[in-house]
Structures are given as structure tokens and as C-alpha cells.
Design brief:
single chain; alpha/beta; D-Maltodextrin-Binding Protein, domain 2; 12 strands
Length: about 300
């Protein structure tokens, strides 16, 4: 009887030990699986660069993240050159730029690439309170690219110098532009020919860090003129129509898309090749479903 009891207790002990061992393995194995799943859910993407692209990419990242919970985005501005430099130096996974890559940047990092995510026009803006244009209601300013060049290189330095404008020697034109990191500035200077204009290089002008800052400065100064991406045009500023071939064209989405408005460019996502599959999925989404956000933000779809 005692022998049977001992055997029974031993069997129970063996089974209990086996159960504890199996349970422990199951728990640890289960934890390992959960950890692996958690790792798969942590796709962190850091994006930096253009203040023009910023409102598009912030909204696209938020919407994409809502539908793809494994993604986590951090988006910051600072200028196109900053974003490109951050990708080159592995500070950001992706960059955003309102200008194409320069040869010097490609030389620094041969694997760097660009892909268009939107189109944009660069609008010449003045305050809605500007009273230097004749007429009632106020006439829409209409300039040639030569007029733009002469305003920005100082040939026209007061408002009465500008064709169709009124003013006097006490009404100087205040130039409000962007800082040297800006892709909007680089595109504006290239398209208008200012990048090779010696007088422009030495002229006094405000150099601000973002489209929003330029908009704010121009809107509050009746003697100012500046330039911003289309998405920053609102009722606080008026735009200047530009001559192209046989007519003057306003800075609008339709005129940029048709090519009639001359000061226009593409907006880019910057990356290193080969493109990571996770990054590609997001970029592909911006170029497809995300185009609705591009349009809603006042920019031009692909």
C-alpha cells in the first residue's frame, strides 16, 4: 500500500514538473512572439526639410499612420537643404525638398535620389492692403519676368518705378525673401534668372526661414513684396499675374498644371537607394491616395 502511494506521488510529481516546464516554455515562447510582433509594429520614419512640403507631408503622415498603426512618423521643417543634408548624413530617413537635388549633393552621396510627390507654383505676393496699384476696384498687378527681375535686383526700388503703380520716392519696395536653406528661394532665383544677377546678390532684402514667415511679413506691410508656395496664398495677400507668350496668367492651380504660369516647380521626397520597402509604401501612398491632400492644401497634383 505504501509502495503504491509512493509510486502515485512520484507520477503526480513528474506530471506536475512536466506541466510547469511546458507552461514556462509556452510563456517564454509566447513572450518572444509578442516581442517579435511589437518589433514589427515599430516602423519609425523621421522626415525633415522643406517648409513648402511640410503641410502636405504632415497630413499625409497622420492619415497614413491612422490606417497603418505599425508606422510612427516624426516630421520637421527647416528648409530643403536641411532635409537633403539630413538624409545624406543619416539624420533623417527621408527628406522633403521644393527643388531638385544639386550636383554637389549627388557627389556627396551617390545613392541619393528624388521622386516627385506634388507640383507647385511660386506666387509673387503683396499685401491685400497695398494701394500702389491704380483703379477702383484695384487693378490686378501684371508683370513680365523682366519686371520681376528689375524689382528684385533694385532697378525698380520705389513703387512709382514699377509700370502701372503709384507712389513716390518715400515709398520704397520692401523685398521679403527666403533664407539660403530654402528650396523655394533656389527655384525662384533659377526660374527668374536672379541666381546669375550680381545686383540681386548685393541688394538689401529680408531673408526669412519659412513660407509662413514671408506670408506674415508681406501681409502686414503695404510696401512689401515676397514669394511663397501656392498653398500659402490666402485673402490676406494679393498675387501678381505674369506674362507668358500672349497673355497674363494668375498664380493658380489650373495655370500651373497647364504650364501657363511660369514660376512653377515640382516638390520632392528625398531618399537613399535602394529604397526601403516601408518607406516606399508611404511614398507610393502619397503619390496615389495622398494626392487628395495635396489638392486640399492648395498645391498641384501630379
Amino acid at each position: 500500500m505504501e509502495k503504491k502511494a509512493i509510486i502515485t506521488i512520484a507520477i503526480i510529481g513528474i506530471l506536475a514538473a512536466a506541466f510547469i516546464t511546458w507552461t514556462a516554455v509556452g510563456v517564454f515562447y509566447g513572450e518572444e512572439i509578442l516581442e517579435e510582433e511589437d518589433e514589427k509594429k515599430d516602423i519609425n520614419i523621421f522626415i525633415s526639410g522643406s517648409t513648402t512640403c511640410f503641410p502636405i507631408v504632415v497630413r499625409c503622415a497622420a492619415e497614413f499612420e491612422d490606417d497603418n498603426t505599425e508606422y510612427n512618423f516624426a516630421v520637421s521643417a527647416g528648409g530643403s537643404s536641411v532635409g537633403i543634408s539630413n538624409v545624406i548624413n543619416d539624420i533623417s530617413h527621408l527628406g522633403i525638398a521644393s527643388r531638385p537635388l544639386k550636383d554637389s549633393e549627388k557627389a556627396l552621396e551617390p545613392s541619393i535620389r528624388q521622386i516627385a510627390i506634388a507640383n507647385d507654383g511660386i506666387a509673387l505676393i503683396m499685401s491685400a492692403g497695398n494701394e500702389h496699384f491704380e483703379g477702383d476696384p484695384k487693378l490686378i498687378p501684371q508683370w513680365t519676368l523682366e519686371d520681376v527681375l528689375k524689382v528684385w535686383n533694385g532697378t525698380y526700388d520705389t513703387w512709382d518705378d514699377v509700370p502701372g503703380c503709384t507712389g513716390g520716392p518715400d515709398d520704397p519696395i520692401h523685398l521679403v525673401g527666403r533664407d539660403s536653406n530654402s528650396g523655394t528661394r533656389a527655384s525662384f532665383e533659377e526660374i527668374t534668372g536672379l541666381e546669375d544677377d550680381a545686383a540681386y546678390q548685393g541688394i538689401s532684402k529680408d531673408e526669412l526661414p519659412s513660407n509662413g514667415a514671408v506670408h506674415l511679413a508681406v501681409a502686414g506691410d503695404e510696401d512689401a513684396i515676397g514669394y511663397v508656395g501656392l498653398g500659402y496664398v490666402d485673402s490676406a495677400v494679393d498675387t501678381i499675374d505674369l506674362w507668358n507668350v500672349d497673355n497674363f496668367y494668375q498664380a493658380t492651380v489650373a495655370n500651373v498644371k497647364s504650364g501657363d504660369y511660369l514660376i512653377s516647380r515640382k516638390l520632392y521626397m528625398i531618399y537613399k537607394a535602394p529604397l526601403n520597402d516601408d518607406y516606399k509604401e508611404f511614398i507610393d501612398w502619397i503619390r496615389s491616395d495622398g494626392q487628395a491632400i495635396v489638392e486640399d492644401e492648395g498645391f498641384v497634383t501630379l
